[in-house]
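Before going further, it is useful to explain how the protein records used in this thesis are read. An example of such a record is reproduced below.

***
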Amino acid sequence: MLVAPRAKIKATSEENNLSLDSIEIVGVPHSHAATEKAVALARSGKVKMLMKGKIHTEELLAPVVDTQTGLRTERRMSHVFALDVPTHPKTLLISDAAINIFPDLECKRCIVHNATDLGQALGVARPKVALLSVVKTVTPNIPSTPIRTLNAGTSRVRSRTSGAPLCSGHIHVLKFRDSTGKLTCINPRRGGSAL
C-alpha cells in the first residue's frame, strides 16, 4: 500500500517504468496528510509496518509519537536501518542510529528487543546481535563501552518464536572487516554477522 499524493505516485512510477497494477494507493493532498493517514492505518491494524519514503524523518515521527493517536507501546521506540548489501548473504539491521542519541541501559535493552522483534518479523528465527563501540576497551567516559550488563540482560529477552537472541558485545567496529573487506568471524556461534 502506498500513501501519498496520487499525482506524485503516478509521476514516479512512470519515470521509473514501474507498474502500479497490484498496489493499493491511498491518495492524500500532501506529505503531512500522508504520515497521519499511514499512522492511522497502522494503528487500526490495516497495515503492519510503516516504511518512510521521500519525506523527512521528523515529519513521520510527529504523528507516530503523538500521545493520543500515535503508535507508542510500553517499550522505548527505536530506529533500524535495514541494509541489503549485494556482497553479503544476509540483511543487516543497524539500530539505533537516529532516535536515541544517548541511551541509558534500559533504553539499550529496548533497542535490542525491538531489533530482535524486527529480525524475526523478517524471517530470522534467532537473530544475532552485536553490540558495537568505536573502541575495544571498556572506558567509562565512552558510554557505548560499559554494556556487559546489557549483554547479560538481553539473554533474558525472549523472542516470540524462539528463545533469546545470540548476543556479543561490546565489539570494536573495525573487527568486523578484514583487509579484503569481508566480514570476519568474531565468535563461531555468531559467525561475524549481525543477522
In short: The longest helix spans residues 105-121. The radius of gyration is 19 Å. The first strand starts at residue 2 and ends at 4. The helical segments are 6-15, 31-44, 57-64, 105-121, 148-154.
